[in-house]
Automatic annotation (TrEMBL):
It comes from Micrococcus luteus (Micrococcus lysodeikticus). Residues 1-20 are annotated as: Disordered. Pfam families: TadE (PF07811). InterPro entries: TadE-like_dom. Keywords: Membrane, Transmembrane, Transmembrane helix. Residues 26-68 form the TadE-like domain. The chain crosses the membrane at residues 34-53. It comes from the Bacteria. This is Pilus assembly protein. Residues 1-14 have a biased composition (Low complexity).
Length: 142
């Protein structure tokens, strides 16, 4: 028989004798607020990481396309640099100010054009400052 029932008083709430009943009203609101904050922060971090990866991929594509274009027989390295800048400005807004350079080198005696794109990507929310990125594309000179 629960304590207090012998004297006609109702049994304590909570299901256990002698354990005071706790008021859990409003706990779901606080809990969901804390969980939603973490979910929103995680989503924002994933979104920013996706933007950084996309920007880096566009930079790689622009460097490779610029190298292929500048390595054509009727083109020079500056044409490749110009082509890479055009692709950067259309592919990612705000990356038109990236440093683009071309260099003629040789690999096993074969002339190779290397186009290098250097830029700073915006930092992630939890990382301070910009993230420096340098990518390059190569093509055999025709």
């Amino acid at each position: 028989m629960p304590r207090g029932a012998a004297h006609g008083a109702p049994a304590p709430r909570g299901g256990h004798a002698g354990v005071p009943w706790r008021d859990d009203r409003g706990a779901a609101v606080a809990e969901s607020t804390m969980v939603m904050t973490l979910v929103v922060l995680l989503f924002a971090a994933l979104l920013q990481a996706g933007v950084v990866i996309h920007t880096r991929n566009v930079m790689i594509d622009a460097a490779s396309a610029g190298a292929r274009y500048g390595a054509l027989a009727d083109r020079n390295p500056e044409d490749g640099v110009q082509r890479a800048r055009e692709l950067l400005s259309t592919g990612v807004p705000g990356q038109s100010g990236a440093d683009v350079a071309a260099e003629l080198t040789s690999q096993d005696g074969v002339p190779v054009l290397r186009v290098t794109v250097s830029s700073s990507l915006p930092g992630l929310g939890f990382l301070p400052g910009p993230i420096p990125v340098e990518v390059s594309g190569h093509a055999f000179r025709q």
